[in-house]
UniProtKB/TrEMBL annotation:
Protein name in the entry: Glycosyl hydrolase family 71 protein
Cofactor(s) essential for the protein: Zn(2+)
Superkingdom of this protein's organism: Eukaryota
Keyword Zinc part of the UniProt annotation: yes
Species whose genome carries this gene: Aspergillus ochraceoroseus
Length: 879
């Protein structure tokens, strides 16, 4: 794995509230030193993540003691090394025969030694008590057709006589690797849930999950990397990602740690714990995780697979005897709910999740076949509420349920949660999107490609749409590469029905290159002519590493057509240098953006040596006079052309390039509960709207639209959708279009000011949005926002339906209000509208801050709007 892959895995593990990785290394592997170095480098770069080394004596024989000492001493002082009681933790996989090596190894390294000598069994532990500081048992799976109990763990704990015990937790186990004589199945089934319940009860000193990426034995919970799959395992690994098992991990791990803190503090109320706080936010929205085998246990050939491992002295059984033909379901609910599980077209099984917390069930196949369907329903009289950071369902329960009996459900209660959203899932993807799509053109291109991958079809504005649009279809269109609209058509859509719209501006404050950006060198510097866009080139632009990107128009010599090519340079090429404070008043401003904020792009001392050098003309640079290229810095033309593979500089007809802060977006804060990024205003709300549309099922009788512009772009798309579904017996006209607009609702989304703790006095009391809480309704008494009592009530009902939390912002009377696209768009089209925004700090700065959960909280509300628009609209039929 590369360091980047390590970093991605570490981030995924952190999202699951995992503290670190155990690195299993074998003596026969020549890459061990390189891999350890890469892993420790990655963990230290990401931060708040620990590693310890486990020496594998089972796969390649014994380790030379001197090499073990060298490896431990190499990494024991690294920042990422996990320390237990101040000592570097070290473990093994087997190696009991070499137990005599470890007193010397411990003396030479000062390590805390907790081996995995499972083959010794608790009864043999007394023979090595003087050599170990604790123990880890690999015994994580049951033997035979039984569920795993805690007898083995209790025996290990008793045999250790107070020394720490590391308990193993694992999902299922299956391996078929003839090259290593491995081909057996152990019962997994309910194990993932009930093993965590046993952890709660036993409260071991440490817990090790088996495993992150042991693909050959199928107990992996991490992402799949093809190079790590052993020969022969691909058929049962590649089609089976196990990422969903991480969904409830934060809740299991939090409950384990919180119970540990309760024991230390000798209290019984989880909410009263003072010595424990989650490292990362926990999302308490409804979640469903389910798993099952694709075929009944007795179908097909076992291919030599046995139930149990006879080589370990276990009784040999048939695989079908140890596995169960059931769908296994774990759900997290925040209040009593019904869970519907349906296989194919069979009658749904209704399961009662009677208390808040994690509930687990299994539903028998009963010969049923077909796709799995699942949903959570709760009583509409007690709607779900999103629980903010650090707040638990009181308390977090774990229940054991008898196998449910399939029943015919009564009329479903009115609240149905469709594919609940975990806000934390969007934090790192949002950072990646911001880093990889710095300009408006890159953002539209990125959205377009993701829409294509999700089955959306591109529509050209130049072509007629009436013959292309279909009910149930998903489409998108773009304008100038700088605006995009995507929509899905409901399966029952009729012209005149309403449209649910979420729209925002996708551009950001920037400095654009002037039409003639070439400037003469000045006192030894090459400079670039730029102009501020939307208020850029403010004080935060001083001394930043600026790169360049955008759209280049190129004429294709072979076709004669003009093509748009996107470019972004991956290194800083410009900087606007500030004047040192030593110069006094001139360094204090105000500053002239035309003359004092001109970026430098290099050093040019050619004026000092003109008499010694031959004059260089534009022709000498391959740039013909009179072309567009001749109006731009020659070196910039050369660099951009090289990036795009352009050899004829005269083929560049024009470009729209802009400067942007080159520092990547990243998670920040001690708990990594913040996001630091450039261009948050407003690629944040647009990103959330885009993801919400992708996460929403097709509407039943309306279209869903996201992202518009201030031109006629949005209105023209709505008109073309309405016209395309006019019945043959009717005609399209102003009346039908007016009906569509009247039945529609527009959510104008633009970032809003989060409260700044250093300037809280400038905010209106009770109108101070916080990060990681929820989307904010933007109000303004002077009509700078579209929000009124009706639209505020509308979005509030949506939030109640989808379990989102709303905040509210209004500017003080003695401050100046900003604006959004809401008033200009809604007044021109005429539809009902509300202004909402995701909170951020440092609006209009070159680099800003939002909360780790905020992109996902935006997805949650916008998806809720798409999902529940029709239901809520029926409540507001008189408005």
């Amino acid at each position: 794995m590369s360091q980047t892959q390590w970093e991605r895995d570490i981030i995924e593990a952190q999202k699951s509230h995992i503290d670190g990785f155990a690195l299993n290394v074998a003596p026969q592997d020549g890459y061990t030193d390189r891999v350890l170095q890469t892993a420790y480098d990655a963990a230290e770069k990401i931060g708040n993540f620990s590693l310890f080394i486990a020496f594998d004596y089972g796969s390649g024989g014994p380790w030379p003691p001197d090499r073990v000492i060298t490896i431990i001493n190499t990494y024991k002082n690294r920042r990422a090394q996990y320390l237990y009681n101040g000592k570097p933790l070290v473990s093994t996989f087997e190696g009991v025969a070499n137990a005599a090596d470890w007193p010397n190894i411990k003396n030479a390294t000062g390590c805390m030694f907790m081996p995995c000598w499972t083959s010794l069994a608790p009864s043999g532990l007394h023979t090595v008590q003087d050599k170990i500081d604790g123990a880890f048992s690999w015994d994580a799976w049951p033997v035979g057709a039984e569920d795993k109990n805690m007898s083995s763990d209790k025996a290990w704990i008793d045999a250790l006589h107070g020394k720490p015990y590391m308990m193993a937790v694992a999902p299922w186990f299956y391996t078929n690797l003839p090259q290593w004589n491995k081909n057996w199945l152990w019962r997994g089934d309910d194990l993932w849930h009930y093993r965590w319940r046993q952890v709660m009860e036993l409260q071991p000193s440490l817990v090790q999950i088996l495993s992150w990426n042991d693909y050959g034995e199928t107990h992996y919970i991490g992402p799949i990397y093809e190079p790590g799959i052993p020969d022969g395992a691909a058929p049962y690994v590649n089609p089976c990602p196990h990422d969903a098992w991480r969904t409830l991990l934060p809740h299991y791990i939090d409950a384990y740690r919180r119970q540990n803190a309760m024991n230390r503090e000798r209290i019984s109320d989880p909410s009263a714990v003072t010595s424990y706080r989650p490292k990362l936010p926990i999302s308490y929205t409804d979640k469903i995780v389910y798993w099952y085998r694709l075929n009944p246990s007795h179908s097909g050939s076992a291919n030599g697979t046995t139930g149990n491992n006879p080589k370990m002295g276990q009784p040999e059984l048939k695989p079908g005897e140890v596995s169960q033909d059931r769908v296994f379901v774990s759900v997290l609910v925040t209040q009593p709910s019904d869970v519907y599980v349906q296989i194919g077209q069979a009658t749904p099984t209704v399961l009662l999740a009677g208390e808040p917390g994690v509930n687990h069930y299994s539903v028998p196949f009963h010969g049923q076949t077909g796709p799995m369907t699942k949903k959570i329903a709760i009583d509409s009289s007690s709607p779900l509420a999103y629980r903010p950071y650090g707040q638990l369902p009181e308390p977090l329960h774990y229940h054991q349920h008898q196998p449910p009996v399939p029943t015919t459900p009564s009329v479903p209660r009115s609240k149905v949660v469709l594919e609940s959203i975990n806000p934390d899932d969007y934090a790192q993807p949002y950072c990646d999107f911001m880093t990889n799509h710095p300009t408006i053109f890159h953002a539209v291109d990125g959205f377009s490609k993701e829409l294509e991958s999700k089955g959306y079809k591109y529509l050209s504005e130049r072509e007629a749409w009436t013959s292309k649009l279909e009910r149930g279809g998903k489409y998108y269109t773009t304008r100038n590469g700088s605006a995009i609209i995507a929509f899905s058509v409901g399966k029952d859509y009729q012209s005149g029905n309403g449209v649910a719209v979420v729209a925002g501006h996708i551009d950001a404050l920037t400095a654009k290159l002037k039409p003639v950006s070439k400037l003469p060198s000045k006192v030894g510097y090459a400079q670039l002519g730029v102009a501020p866009y939307a208020g850029a080139l403010g004080k935060t632009w001083w001394d930043r590493d600026l790169s360049i990107g955008g759209k280049v128009l190129v004429r294709n010599a072979s076709t004669g057509k003009v093509e748009a090519k996107l470019v972004k340079l991956d290194w800083p090429i410009a900087r606007i240098p500030s004047l040192a404070e030593h110069f006094g008043a001139p360094a204090q401003g105000p500053f002239n953006k035309e003359t004092q904020m001109v970026p430098i792009i290099g050093v040019d001392n050619s004026d000092l040596f003109q008499s010694q050098q031959t004059s260089t003309t534009t022709a000498d640079n391959g740039i013909e006079p009179g072309t567009f290229a001749a109006t731009q810095p020659a070196k910039l033309i050369h660099v951009i052309s090289k990036e795009l593979g352009i050899t004829d500089y005269s083929s560049i007809l024009n470009w729209e390039l802009e400067l942007y802060d080159s520092q990547p977006a990243c998670l920040g804060g001690l708990d990594k509960d913040l996001i630091f990024a450039g261009r948050i205003d407003d690629k944040l709300c647009c990103y959330a709207a885009h993801q919400a549309l992708l996460a929403s099922p097709d509407s039943t009788s309306s279209s869903s639209v996201k992202m518009g512009a201030r031109s006629n772009f949005m209105s023209s798309v709505i008109e073309r959708i309405t016209q395309s579904f006019v019945p043959v017996t009717s005609s399209y006209g102003p009346d039908l279009l007016a009906q569509t607009v009247a039945n529609s609702f527009f959510v104008s989304s633009d970032v809003i000011h989060a409260v700044n703790p250093n300037f809280a006095n400038v905010y209106l009391e009770n109108h101070m949005p916080r990060l990681n809480v929820g989307v904010t309704v933007s109000a303004d008494s002077n009509g700078h926002m579209t929000t009124d009592s009706v639209s505020h009530g509308f979005i509030k009902r949506v939030a109640e339906r989808c379990g989102a939390t709303l905040q509210v912002f209004q500017i003080r009377n003695d401050s100046r209000s900003g604006g959004t696209i809401g008033p200009m768009t809604s007044s021109r089209i005429g539809m009902r509208a509300v202004d909402v925004g995701i909170p951020q700090l440092s609006m209009h700065s070159i680099r800003a801050t939002t909360g780790r959960l905020d992109p996902g909280l935006g997805v949650k509300l916008f998806k809720g709007f798409f999902d529940y628009f029709e239901d809520v609209d029926k409540e507001f039929v008189d408005f």
